Amino acid sequence: MTAPLLLTIFDALVFLAVIVPFVLLVRHRNAIPRLPAPTAAVTLPRLSVVVPARDEAAAIGRAIGSLIAQDYPDLEIIVVDDRSSDTTGDVVRGLAAKDPRVVALRVDGLPAGWLGKNHALWRGADRASGEWLLFTDADVVFAPEALRRAVGYAISEGLDHLTLAPRLVANGLLLRAFVAFFGYVFIALWGAHLANDPKSRRAVGIGAFNLVRRSAYEGIGTMRALSLRPDDDIRLGRRLRAFGFRQRVLNGNELMSVEWYPSLGAAISGLEKSLYSSLEYRVIDATLVLLYLGTTMVWPFVGVFLLGGIGSVLLTVVVSCLVAGLLETYRQSISLRLTPSALLVALLLPFSAAWFGWAIVRSVYLAETRGVRWRGTTYPLALLRAQSGLEGIAANRSK
Predict the structure, then answer these.
(1) In the structure, what pLDDT confidence band is assigned to residue 398 with cuts at 50, 70 and 90?
(2) pTM
(3) How far, CA to CA in Å, does 254 sit from each of 70, 142, 351?
(4) What is the torsional sign of CA 253, 254, 260, 263?
(5) Distances, alpha carbon 292 to alpha carbons 19, 189, 256, 361, 368, in Å
Protein backbone atom coordinates (compact mmCIF):
# COMPACT_ATOMS: atom_id res chain seq x y z
CA MET A 1 0.00 0.00 0.00
CA THR A 2 1.10 3.55 -0.69
CA ALA A 3 1.46 6.10 2.09
CA PRO A 4 -1.54 8.21 0.92
CA LEU A 5 -3.76 5.10 0.89
CA LEU A 6 -2.65 4.12 4.39
CA LEU A 7 -3.37 7.64 5.61
CA THR A 8 -6.83 7.54 4.03
CA ILE A 9 -7.56 4.23 5.76
CA PHE A 10 -6.34 5.70 9.03
CA ASP A 11 -8.60 8.75 8.59
CA ALA A 12 -11.53 6.44 7.83
CA LEU A 13 -10.92 4.62 11.12
CA VAL A 14 -10.74 7.97 12.93
CA PHE A 15 -14.01 8.89 11.24
CA LEU A 16 -15.69 5.75 12.60
CA ALA A 17 -14.19 6.24 16.07
CA VAL A 18 -15.78 9.70 16.29
CA ILE A 19 -19.03 9.17 14.38
CA VAL A 20 -20.19 6.20 16.45
CA PRO A 21 -20.11 8.04 19.82
CA PHE A 22 -21.59 11.13 18.16
CA VAL A 23 -24.55 9.19 16.80
CA LEU A 24 -25.05 7.58 20.19
CA LEU A 25 -24.90 11.01 21.85
CA VAL A 26 -27.59 12.31 19.48
CA ARG A 27 -29.78 9.26 20.05
CA HIS A 28 -29.39 9.44 23.83
CA ARG A 29 -29.15 13.21 24.31
CA ASN A 30 -32.05 13.07 26.79
CA ALA A 31 -30.90 9.87 28.50
CA ILE A 32 -29.67 11.87 31.51
CA PRO A 33 -32.87 13.84 32.17
CA ARG A 34 -33.28 16.71 34.57
CA LEU A 35 -34.57 15.97 38.03
CA PRO A 36 -38.35 16.27 37.59
CA ALA A 37 -40.61 18.35 39.77
CA PRO A 38 -42.46 16.25 42.39
CA THR A 39 -45.75 14.86 41.07
CA ALA A 40 -47.16 13.33 44.26
CA ALA A 41 -46.83 13.80 47.98
CA VAL A 42 -44.15 11.57 49.50
CA THR A 43 -43.36 11.08 53.17
CA LEU A 44 -39.79 12.28 53.49
CA PRO A 45 -37.58 10.34 55.93
CA ARG A 46 -34.75 11.78 57.98
CA LEU A 47 -31.83 12.80 55.77
CA SER A 48 -28.21 13.15 56.88
CA VAL A 49 -25.92 15.24 54.70
CA VAL A 50 -22.24 14.37 55.13
CA VAL A 51 -19.75 17.07 54.09
CA PRO A 52 -16.00 16.35 54.34
CA ALA A 53 -13.87 19.49 54.41
CA ARG A 54 -10.17 20.25 54.48
CA ASP A 55 -8.97 23.85 54.21
CA GLU A 56 -12.26 25.02 52.72
CA ALA A 57 -12.70 28.22 54.73
CA ALA A 58 -13.28 30.33 51.62
CA ALA A 59 -16.16 28.23 50.26
CA ILE A 60 -17.71 26.24 53.06
CA GLY A 61 -19.79 29.04 54.57
CA ARG A 62 -21.79 29.50 51.37
CA ALA A 63 -22.13 25.75 50.82
CA ILE A 64 -23.37 24.96 54.33
CA GLY A 65 -25.55 28.06 54.21
CA SER A 66 -27.33 26.63 51.17
CA LEU A 67 -27.93 23.38 53.09
CA ILE A 68 -29.27 25.27 56.11
CA ALA A 69 -31.70 27.05 53.73
CA GLN A 70 -33.19 23.78 52.46
CA ASP A 71 -36.95 23.29 52.80
CA TYR A 72 -36.38 19.65 53.79
CA PRO A 73 -38.43 18.83 56.94
CA ASP A 74 -36.10 16.44 58.81
CA LEU A 75 -32.47 17.23 58.10
CA GLU A 76 -29.10 16.98 59.79
CA ILE A 77 -25.89 18.35 58.31
CA ILE A 78 -22.69 16.67 59.47
CA VAL A 79 -19.54 18.57 58.55
CA VAL A 80 -16.29 16.68 59.09
CA ASP A 81 -13.29 18.97 59.42
CA ASP A 82 -10.48 16.74 58.18
CA ARG A 83 -7.31 18.14 59.78
CA SER A 84 -7.77 21.64 58.32
CA SER A 85 -4.97 24.13 58.89
CA ASP A 86 -7.07 27.20 58.09
CA THR A 87 -10.25 28.54 59.72
CA THR A 88 -12.58 25.88 58.29
CA GLY A 89 -13.27 24.52 61.77
CA ASP A 90 -14.09 27.96 63.14
CA VAL A 91 -16.57 28.63 60.33
CA VAL A 92 -18.29 25.28 60.84
CA ARG A 93 -18.48 25.64 64.62
CA GLY A 94 -19.97 29.09 64.17
CA LEU A 95 -22.67 27.69 61.91
CA ALA A 96 -23.34 24.82 64.32
CA ALA A 97 -23.80 27.28 67.18
CA LYS A 98 -26.51 29.07 65.21
CA ASP A 99 -28.36 26.02 63.85
CA PRO A 100 -28.79 22.76 65.82
CA ARG A 101 -29.11 20.78 62.59
CA VAL A 102 -25.42 21.38 61.89
CA VAL A 103 -23.05 18.93 63.59
CA ALA A 104 -19.34 19.79 63.60
CA LEU A 105 -16.87 16.90 63.78
CA ARG A 106 -13.11 17.27 63.88
CA VAL A 107 -10.58 14.69 62.65
CA ASP A 108 -7.10 15.24 64.08
CA GLY A 109 -5.38 12.06 62.90
CA LEU A 110 -5.61 9.70 59.94
CA PRO A 111 -5.67 5.95 60.71
CA ALA A 112 -3.58 3.58 58.62
CA GLY A 113 -5.32 2.17 55.57
CA TRP A 114 -7.41 5.27 54.85
CA LEU A 115 -7.39 8.20 52.48
CA GLY A 116 -8.33 11.40 54.29
CA LYS A 117 -11.57 12.22 52.48
CA ASN A 118 -12.79 8.61 52.57
CA HIS A 119 -12.15 8.44 56.30
CA ALA A 120 -14.00 11.73 56.81
CA LEU A 121 -16.98 10.39 54.85
CA TRP A 122 -16.97 7.22 56.93
CA ARG A 123 -16.78 9.18 60.19
CA GLY A 124 -19.66 11.40 59.12
CA ALA A 125 -21.85 8.50 58.02
CA ASP A 126 -21.08 6.66 61.25
CA ARG A 127 -22.32 9.68 63.22
CA ALA A 128 -25.40 10.16 61.02
CA SER A 129 -28.90 9.17 62.13
CA GLY A 130 -30.75 9.49 58.84
CA GLU A 131 -32.47 6.76 56.85
CA TRP A 132 -30.86 8.34 53.79
CA LEU A 133 -27.32 9.70 53.43
CA LEU A 134 -26.16 12.42 51.07
CA PHE A 135 -22.43 12.57 50.43
CA THR A 136 -21.47 15.93 48.98
CA ASP A 137 -18.53 18.34 48.84
CA ALA A 138 -17.73 21.48 50.81
CA ASP A 139 -18.02 23.78 47.77
CA VAL A 140 -21.40 22.67 46.38
CA VAL A 141 -24.22 25.24 46.49
CA PHE A 142 -27.82 23.98 46.46
CA ALA A 143 -31.14 25.54 45.54
CA PRO A 144 -33.57 25.52 48.52
CA GLU A 145 -35.76 22.74 47.11
CA ALA A 146 -32.95 20.47 45.89
CA LEU A 147 -32.91 17.91 48.70
CA ARG A 148 -36.68 17.64 48.99
CA ARG A 149 -37.04 16.99 45.27
CA ALA A 150 -34.12 14.53 45.12
CA VAL A 151 -35.19 12.39 48.07
CA GLY A 152 -38.83 12.48 46.96
CA TYR A 153 -37.81 11.28 43.49
CA ALA A 154 -35.57 8.51 44.85
CA ILE A 155 -38.35 7.19 47.09
CA SER A 156 -41.07 7.40 44.46
CA GLU A 157 -38.85 5.53 41.97
CA GLY A 158 -37.76 2.88 44.48
CA LEU A 159 -34.08 3.77 44.16
CA ASP A 160 -31.20 2.95 46.47
CA HIS A 161 -28.80 5.45 44.94
CA LEU A 162 -29.36 8.71 43.11
CA THR A 163 -26.49 10.79 41.79
CA LEU A 164 -26.92 14.26 40.27
CA ALA A 165 -24.59 16.06 37.89
CA PRO A 166 -24.16 19.68 39.03
CA ARG A 167 -23.73 22.80 36.95
CA LEU A 168 -19.99 23.30 36.62
CA VAL A 169 -18.85 26.86 37.17
CA ALA A 170 -15.59 27.66 35.40
CA ASN A 171 -14.03 31.12 35.28
CA GLY A 172 -11.80 31.91 32.32
CA LEU A 173 -11.86 30.62 28.76
CA LEU A 174 -9.17 27.95 29.09
CA LEU A 175 -10.64 26.43 32.24
CA ARG A 176 -14.15 26.51 30.77
CA ALA A 177 -12.88 24.70 27.68
CA PHE A 178 -11.19 22.06 29.82
CA VAL A 179 -14.28 21.56 31.99
CA ALA A 180 -16.47 21.33 28.88
CA PHE A 181 -14.15 18.67 27.47
CA PHE A 182 -14.36 16.73 30.72
CA GLY A 183 -18.14 16.82 30.42
CA TYR A 184 -17.89 15.57 26.84
CA VAL A 185 -15.76 12.63 27.94
CA PHE A 186 -18.16 11.78 30.78
CA ILE A 187 -21.33 11.96 28.71
CA ALA A 188 -20.42 11.14 25.12
CA LEU A 189 -17.40 8.85 25.38
CA TRP A 190 -17.78 7.12 28.73
CA GLY A 191 -21.55 6.81 28.34
CA ALA A 192 -22.72 7.86 31.80
CA HIS A 193 -26.32 7.61 30.63
CA LEU A 194 -26.00 3.81 30.55
CA ALA A 195 -26.33 3.82 34.33
CA ASN A 196 -30.04 4.48 33.73
CA ASP A 197 -30.35 1.34 31.61
CA PRO A 198 -31.27 -1.67 33.78
CA LYS A 199 -29.64 -3.97 31.20
CA SER A 200 -26.29 -2.21 31.44
CA ARG A 201 -23.58 -2.70 34.05
CA ARG A 202 -22.44 0.90 33.75
CA ALA A 203 -22.49 2.63 37.13
CA VAL A 204 -22.04 6.28 38.06
CA GLY A 205 -21.25 8.21 41.20
CA ILE A 206 -20.61 11.96 41.33
CA GLY A 207 -18.89 13.40 44.38
CA ALA A 208 -21.05 16.52 44.43
CA PHE A 209 -24.20 14.49 45.01
CA ASN A 210 -24.30 10.82 46.02
CA LEU A 211 -27.65 10.13 47.72
CA VAL A 212 -27.71 6.62 49.20
CA ARG A 213 -30.26 4.65 51.16
CA ARG A 214 -28.56 3.82 54.45
CA SER A 215 -29.36 0.12 54.22
CA ALA A 216 -27.66 0.01 50.80
CA TYR A 217 -24.63 1.88 52.13
CA GLU A 218 -24.26 -0.63 54.94
CA GLY A 219 -24.97 -3.50 52.56
CA ILE A 220 -21.84 -2.74 50.52
CA GLY A 221 -19.64 -2.55 53.62
CA THR A 222 -19.72 1.25 54.09
CA MET A 223 -16.79 3.45 53.10
CA ARG A 224 -14.45 0.91 54.68
CA ALA A 225 -14.67 -1.03 51.41
CA LEU A 226 -13.43 2.07 49.56
CA SER A 227 -10.94 3.31 52.13
CA LEU A 228 -8.02 3.56 49.67
CA ARG A 229 -9.81 4.63 46.48
CA PRO A 230 -8.97 8.15 45.23
CA ASP A 231 -11.96 7.81 42.88
CA ASP A 232 -14.25 7.14 45.85
CA ASP A 233 -17.30 8.85 44.31
CA ILE A 234 -17.56 6.86 41.11
CA ARG A 235 -16.32 3.69 42.83
CA LEU A 236 -19.17 4.05 45.34
CA GLY A 237 -21.60 4.05 42.42
CA ARG A 238 -19.93 1.03 40.84
CA ARG A 239 -20.02 -0.91 44.09
CA LEU A 240 -23.68 -0.15 44.73
CA ARG A 241 -24.64 -1.18 41.20
CA ALA A 242 -22.54 -4.34 41.34
CA PHE A 243 -24.24 -5.38 44.58
CA GLY A 244 -27.60 -5.15 42.82
CA PHE A 245 -28.88 -1.87 44.24
CA ARG A 246 -31.06 0.36 42.07
CA GLN A 247 -29.29 3.42 40.76
CA ARG A 248 -30.00 6.42 38.57
CA VAL A 249 -28.07 9.46 37.33
CA LEU A 250 -29.87 12.71 36.54
CA ASN A 251 -28.95 16.23 35.48
CA GLY A 252 -29.18 18.51 38.50
CA ASN A 253 -27.63 21.66 37.05
CA GLU A 254 -30.73 23.73 37.77
CA LEU A 255 -30.55 22.83 41.47
CA MET A 256 -26.86 22.75 42.35
CA SER A 257 -23.58 24.22 41.21
CA VAL A 258 -19.91 23.84 42.00
CA GLU A 259 -16.74 25.63 41.01
CA TRP A 260 -14.76 22.53 40.13
CA TYR A 261 -11.32 24.19 40.16
CA PRO A 262 -10.23 27.85 40.25
CA SER A 263 -7.82 27.56 37.30
CA LEU A 264 -6.63 25.21 34.57
CA GLY A 265 -3.39 24.54 36.44
CA ALA A 266 -5.31 23.68 39.59
CA ALA A 267 -7.53 21.31 37.61
CA ILE A 268 -4.56 19.43 36.15
CA SER A 269 -2.91 19.25 39.59
CA GLY A 270 -6.15 18.17 41.24
CA LEU A 271 -6.66 15.31 38.80
CA GLU A 272 -3.26 13.79 39.53
CA LYS A 273 -4.67 11.79 42.46
CA SER A 274 -7.60 10.16 40.65
CA LEU A 275 -6.98 9.80 36.91
CA TYR A 276 -4.60 6.85 37.23
CA SER A 277 -6.87 5.10 39.71
CA SER A 278 -9.79 5.46 37.29
CA LEU A 279 -7.61 3.55 34.80
CA GLU A 280 -7.08 0.82 37.41
CA TYR A 281 -3.40 1.83 37.76
CA ARG A 282 -2.59 0.19 34.42
CA VAL A 283 -0.01 1.86 32.18
CA ILE A 284 -1.36 0.08 29.10
CA ASP A 285 -4.83 1.55 29.69
CA ALA A 286 -3.36 5.02 30.10
CA THR A 287 -1.37 4.57 26.87
CA LEU A 288 -4.46 3.51 24.92
CA VAL A 289 -6.41 6.51 26.18
CA LEU A 290 -3.58 8.83 25.14
CA LEU A 291 -3.51 7.29 21.67
CA TYR A 292 -7.28 7.69 21.38
CA LEU A 293 -7.12 11.34 22.41
CA GLY A 294 -4.32 12.11 19.96
CA THR A 295 -5.82 10.34 16.96
CA THR A 296 -9.48 11.32 17.37
CA MET A 297 -9.35 14.76 19.02
CA VAL A 298 -6.07 16.40 18.05
CA TRP A 299 -5.14 14.98 14.64
CA PRO A 300 -8.47 15.82 12.90
CA PHE A 301 -8.07 19.55 13.65
CA VAL A 302 -4.56 19.44 12.19
CA GLY A 303 -5.17 17.06 9.32
CA VAL A 304 -8.15 18.94 7.96
CA PHE A 305 -5.75 21.74 6.95
CA LEU A 306 -2.92 19.50 5.75
CA LEU A 307 -4.79 16.97 3.64
CA GLY A 308 -6.77 17.11 0.44
CA GLY A 309 -9.25 14.80 -1.22
CA ILE A 310 -11.19 12.17 0.69
CA GLY A 311 -9.02 12.55 3.79
CA SER A 312 -9.93 16.22 4.10
CA VAL A 313 -13.62 15.41 3.66
CA LEU A 314 -13.54 12.71 6.32
CA LEU A 315 -11.74 14.92 8.82
CA THR A 316 -14.04 17.86 8.12
CA VAL A 317 -16.99 15.70 9.11
CA VAL A 318 -15.07 14.51 12.17
CA VAL A 319 -14.30 18.06 13.31
CA SER A 320 -17.93 19.10 12.76
CA CYS A 321 -19.19 16.19 14.85
CA LEU A 322 -16.68 16.86 17.63
CA VAL A 323 -17.68 20.52 17.84
CA ALA A 324 -21.40 19.72 17.74
CA GLY A 325 -21.00 16.99 20.36
CA LEU A 326 -19.05 19.23 22.71
CA LEU A 327 -21.64 22.00 22.34
CA GLU A 328 -24.36 19.56 23.33
CA THR A 329 -22.52 18.36 26.43
CA TYR A 330 -21.65 22.01 27.22
CA ARG A 331 -25.38 22.71 27.22
CA GLN A 332 -25.97 19.83 29.60
CA SER A 333 -23.15 20.52 32.05
CA ILE A 334 -22.33 24.24 31.99
CA SER A 335 -25.00 26.46 30.45
CA LEU A 336 -28.31 26.04 28.65
CA ARG A 337 -27.48 29.08 26.52
CA LEU A 338 -25.05 28.52 23.66
CA THR A 339 -23.30 31.85 23.23
CA PRO A 340 -20.46 32.70 20.80
CA SER A 341 -18.01 31.99 23.62
CA ALA A 342 -19.41 28.43 23.79
CA LEU A 343 -18.43 27.94 20.15
CA LEU A 344 -14.93 29.17 20.96
CA VAL A 345 -14.82 26.68 23.85
CA ALA A 346 -15.77 23.92 21.40
CA LEU A 347 -13.09 24.97 18.92
CA LEU A 348 -10.51 24.69 21.69
CA LEU A 349 -11.29 20.97 21.96
CA PRO A 350 -7.91 19.76 20.60
CA PHE A 351 -6.07 21.87 23.16
CA SER A 352 -8.36 20.62 25.94
CA ALA A 353 -7.73 17.04 24.83
CA ALA A 354 -3.98 17.69 24.90
CA TRP A 355 -4.21 19.17 28.41
CA PHE A 356 -6.26 16.18 29.52
CA GLY A 357 -3.64 13.88 28.03
CA TRP A 358 -0.93 15.77 29.92
CA ALA A 359 -2.96 15.35 33.13
CA ILE A 360 -3.01 11.59 32.53
CA VAL A 361 0.75 11.48 31.87
CA ARG A 362 1.37 13.50 35.01
CA SER A 363 -0.91 11.31 37.11
CA VAL A 364 0.79 8.11 35.90
CA TYR A 365 4.32 9.47 36.29
CA LEU A 366 3.82 10.83 39.80
CA ALA A 367 2.03 7.71 41.01
CA GLU A 368 4.68 5.37 39.58
CA THR A 369 7.63 7.40 40.89
CA ARG A 370 6.49 8.64 44.29
CA GLY A 371 2.99 7.28 44.98
CA VAL A 372 -0.23 9.28 45.21
CA ARG A 373 -0.21 12.44 47.34
CA TRP A 374 -3.53 13.66 48.70
CA ARG A 375 -4.46 15.98 51.55
CA GLY A 376 -0.92 16.14 52.84
CA THR A 377 -0.26 12.37 52.84
CA THR A 378 1.62 10.27 50.26
CA TYR A 379 0.38 6.73 49.64
CA PRO A 380 2.55 3.99 48.07
CA LEU A 381 1.15 2.79 44.76
CA ALA A 382 1.38 -0.85 45.87
CA LEU A 383 -0.91 -0.06 48.80
CA LEU A 384 -3.50 1.61 46.57
CA ARG A 385 -3.37 -1.13 43.95
CA ALA A 386 -4.24 -3.70 46.62
CA GLN A 387 -7.81 -2.38 46.85
CA SER A 388 -10.11 -2.33 43.82
CA GLY A 389 -13.17 -1.21 45.75
CA LEU A 390 -15.11 -4.06 44.16
CA GLU A 391 -14.08 -6.86 46.50
CA GLY A 392 -16.82 -9.22 47.60
CA ILE A 393 -19.06 -8.67 44.60
CA ALA A 394 -18.79 -12.21 43.25
CA ALA A 395 -19.68 -13.64 46.66
CA ASN A 396 -22.62 -11.27 46.93
CA ARG A 397 -23.98 -12.32 43.53
CA SER A 398 -23.73 -16.01 44.41
CA LYS A 399 -26.07 -15.67 47.39
Answers:
(1) very low
(2) 0.93
(3) 15, 9, 29
(4) positive
(5) 14, 11, 32, 14, 22
